[in-house]
Amino acid sequence: MQFAKDSFYMALRERLASLNPKRTVTLNGATRPAVIVAENELVIPVEPLPDAFYIEWGAAQVIETGARALITMDCVISHHTLGTVESGVDRGRTLTALDMELLSICQPLRTAKCDFTQTPSVELGTNVF
User: Fold this and answer.
1) How many domains are contained in the chain?
2) pTM exceeds 0.85
């Protein structure tokens, strides 16, 4: 399952970097696109960072489809914002912009499953969707 999780994360991260290169976070001294998988981080902020997308994974399940089985996993992507001004009066507009970015980076609905433990990464011949 780790290859599927990594592939999904990397696809969203690359798509966000292309769509909005300014939406970044700095964690552990590294600045990168604002897609965070908390289980992968050495140090997790006590409070989730605003204007970032957090991915959380559920348990894996097998679905029988005849000759081949599919493995499914729940994925929750959460985000929040404080707005762009101190009073927070534009919070709704900023949240809508985040929503639209999330919908955009989730397209297309699939990505190649890759092994990111080697450089360069290697496609494994299946998809995550």
Assistant:
1) 1
2) yes
